[in-house]
Design a protein that fits this description.
Layout lengths: L1 H36 L8 E8 L4 E6 L12 H11 L3 E9 L5 E5 L14 H6 L4 E5 L34 E7 L2 E5 L5 E3 L8 E2 L4 E2 L4 E5 L6 E5 L6 E5 L4 H12 L3 E5 L10 E7 H10 L3 H16 L4 H10 L25 H15 L1 H7 L1 E2 L16 E8 L2 E9 L5 E9 L5 H18 L1
Parallel strand pairs: 4-5, 5-14, 8-12
Antiparallel strand pairs: 1-2, 1-19, 3-4, 3-15, 6-7, 6-13, 9-10, 11-12, 16-17, 17-18, 18-19
Helix pairs in contact: 1-10, 2-5, 2-6, 2-8, 5-6, 6-7, 8-9
Length: 448
C-alpha cells in the first residue's frame, strides 16, 4: 500500500509539472503569435525564438530555436566571450625592446584603443613620444584588412573600419570644413577635385572651397580622396583609412614627432627581452563595443585573442579554439566567420545564443555582464525597453533584412530568463520588427 501511494504521488506531481510546463509554453506561444508571428511585419520572415529559465535550466518555449539564422551583431556575443575568457583584466597595447642600433622596436598586439579619442590615458604613447627611431613589427599579421564575407562596397563607411596589426586613432580619418577650408585629422591627406569643367571651385594647394555643396569619396585601395559636386552642403565626414603599413608608419611618425618610423618583419630566430605595455582595462573596451555595437572593436578583440594564444593575428585561430573548447557542446554547430557580425557567412541558432549566454553568466557573473551589455534605453537599446531599464540586458543585431536580439530578462516574479529572437528575410522596416520583439519581451517580463 505504501509503495502504491509513493508511485501515485510521483505520477501526480509529474502530471502537475508536465501540465504546468505545457501551460507556460502555450501562454508564451500565444504571446509570440500575438506580437510577432501573426503580425504583418513578420509573416513573410524567417523567425526563431528561444526562451530559457536559468534557474530550472530548461526551455520554456522554442519556435524554430534549432534553426540557423544570420545573426548580424549578435555575433559580438561569442566574440566578447572569447575576449573575457582569454585577455585577462587589461589590454596589451604592445611589447617593446631595443635593437643593437638603439632603435625602439614595437611589437603591436592589435589594441584598438591606441590614440582612440575615447581614451585619454595612453601609456604606449607616453612610452614612445620621445623616441626618434621607431620600428614596428609586421610578422604577427596573418589575416586581411576586411573580414570574410564583408560587403566590399561599404569600404568607406565608418562601421567598416579596416582591421590592422597596429590600429591608430580607431583607423578612422576625420575631415571637416572650417572657414571654407578643408581639414583632415589626424593627418593631412590629398583631396582632389574631379569636376571636369572646374565650375566647382576647389583649390588643391590651400584646400579652400568657394562652395560647400559637395561630398567627398575615398578610393577603395588608397588614401586618395575626391571632392564632387552635391546638392547637399558638406560639414564633416569620417572615413576608414586604408590601413596599409606605409600609411600607418607615416601616421605614427607625424603623431609621435619621430625622425623615422618604419615597419619590419622579425627574423624567425629573433629573440629579445620585451617590456609589455598595457593600455586600458578590458571591460572599458568591451562596454562601448556592446553599447554602440562597435564593429572595429569587435574585430580587433578577436585578433587580440588570437595574438594572446598563438602570437599571431588571425581571427580563424581564435574562432577554431572557441569551437573546440567552450562551444564544443553546442547542440547545433554554428558557422562563425568574423568578430563583428558584418559577414552574412555567420550562422547561429537561437539555442546557440541561449547556451553561450548561460556559459557567460556561469563563468563571469551577472554583475559583470550587466556592466557590459546595454540595458533599456541605453546604447543600441535607446528608445526601446524604456520601462524595462535594469531588468533587460541584451545585444541587438541589424543588417538588411535581419533583426536580432539576445540577452537576459529579469521578470516581475524575479525569474532570470535568457531570451534569443532572430529574424531573417523580413521585408518590413527594422523599426516595426524591433517594436514587435519589444512587445513580446515586455509581455514575458510582466507575466513570468
Amino acid at each position: 500500500m505504501f509503495l502504491f501511494k509513493m508511485v501515485r504521488n510521483f505520477f501526480f506531481l509529474f502530471a502537475i509539472v508536465f501540465f504546468a510546463s505545457c501551460s507556460v509554453q502555450k501562454k508564451i506561444g500565444h504571446s509570440a503569435e500575438r506580437f510577432m508571428l501573426n503580425d504583418s511585419a513578420f509573416v513573410t520572415a524567417h523567425t526563431g525564438i528561444s526562451v530559457y529559465d536559468a534557474a530550472t535550466k530548461s526551455f520554456l518555449y522554442n519556435y524554430q530555436g534549432d534553426q540557423f539564422f544570420v545573426p548580424a551583431s549578435n555575433t559580438k556575443i561569442p566574440t566578447i566571450f572569447a575576449a573575457m575568457k582569454f585577455l585577462g583584466d587589461s589590454i596589451v597595447a604592445a611589447s617593446i625592446a631595443r635593437d643593437d642600433d638603439g632603435a625602439t622596436l614595437v611589437f603591436p598586439a592589435g589594441d584598438p584603443t591606441f590614440l582612440h579619442p575615447d581614451y585619454k590615458n595612453q601609456p604606449l604613447y607616453e612610452k614612445l613620444k620621445n623616441e626618434k627611431n621607431i620600428r614596428w613589427d609586421l610578422s604577427a599579421w596573418k589575416t586581411s584588412h576586411w573580414g570574410s564575407g564583408w560587403a566590399w562596397n561599404d569600404y568607406d563607411a565608418t562601421y567598416m573600419a579596416e582591421r590592422s596589426p597596429f590600429p591608430v586613432y580607431g583607423n578612422v580619418l576625420r575631415i571637416n570644413l572650417v572657414n571654407n577650408t578643408l581639414n583632415s585629422f589626424p593627418i593631412p591627406v590629398h583631396i582632389r577635385s574631379i569636376d571636369p569643367d572646374t565650375t566647382f571651385v576647389f583649390n588643391r594647394e590651400t584646400s579652400a572651397v568657394r562652395s560647400n555643396y559637395f561630398r567627398i569619396d575615398r578610393a577603395i585601395d588608397e588614401n586618395e580622396f575626391y571632392i564632387r559636386p552635391s546638392s547637399s552642403a558638406f560639414t564633416n565626414a569620417n572615413f576608414p583609412y586604408r590601413a596599409h603599413e606605409g600609411f600607418i608608419s607615416e601616421l605614427l611618425k607625424d603623431t609621435l614627432k619621430a625622425e623615422n618610423v618604419s615597419s619590419f618583419t622579425v627574423a624567425p630566430d629573433f629573440n629579445l627581452s620585451n617590456e609589455i605595455i598595457y593600455s586600458q582595462p578590458l571591460d572599458s573596451m568591451l562596454k562601448p563595443l556592446m553599447y554602440r555595437s562597435d564593429n572595429f572593436f569587435a574585430e580587433q578583440a578577436l585578433l587580440m585573442v588570437s595574438h594572446k594564444l598563438f602570437g599571431v593575428m588571425d581571427e580563424s585561430l581564435a574562432i577554431d579554439t572557441m569551437m573546440k573548447t567552450e562551444f564544443r557542446d553546442l547542440q547545433q554547430k554554428p558557422r562563425w566567420a568574423d568578430g563583428s557580425g558584418l559577414s552574412r557567412y555567420n550562422l547561429f541558432t537561437p539555442q546557440n545564443f541561449i547556451a553561450i549566454l548561460e556559459k557567460m553568466k556561469d563563468q563571469f557573473g551577472m554583475d559583470r555582464l550587466k556592466n557590459i551589455f546595454a540595458t533599456g534605453n541605453t546604447g543600441t537599446l535607446r528608445n526601446y525597453y524604456v520601462t524595462d531599464s535594469t531588468f533587460f540586458y541584451a545585444k541587438t543585431g541589424t543588417l538588411g533584412g535581419v533583426v536580432a536580439l539576445s540577452g537576459f530578462l529579469i521578470t516581475k516574479k524575479e525569474k532570470l530568463l535568457i531570451v534569443s529572437v532572430l529574424v531573417n528575410n523580413h521585408r518590413a522596416s527594422s523599426t516595426d520588427i524591433r517594436r514587435g520583439v519589444e512587445k513580446f519581451i515586455q509581455d514575458l517580463r510582466q507575466k513570468y
